[in-house]
Specification:
90 residues, two-stranded antiparallel ribbon, 1 helix
């Protein structure tokens, strides 16, 4: 029997395989499953974050559009005031 000796206890290769199987079943598999669950949640949170960033950018664009509209309206008012001043001088 060729096996490993650890502190007076001999372990044959079949025992090592059984320990590895138990380790994989009780430690490895849950770790892999937890990792997939954790990555899924992380991806979901990242997706929500990008969704909110997109909404913020859309609101900022809308704000700039309204600001441009206000400037155009102010420009029209000033143009009318200038035209009426010119007509008054003639």
């Amino acid at each position: 029997m060729s096996g490993f000796k650890t502190k007076g206890v001999s372990m044959d290769p079949d025992s090592i395989v059984q320990i590895f199987i138990a380790f994989s079943a009780f430690i490895g598999a849950p770790a892999v499953i937890f990792t997939f669950i954790h990555q899924g949640r992380k991806l979901k949170l990242k997706t929500e974050e990008w969704k909110y960033k997109k909404e913020i950018l859309e609101l900022e664009v809308r704000k700039e559009e309204l600001h441009i509209d206000a400037i155009r309206e102010e420009s029209r008012k000033l143009d009318r005031a200038i035209e009426s001043s010119i007509k008054a001088l003639e």
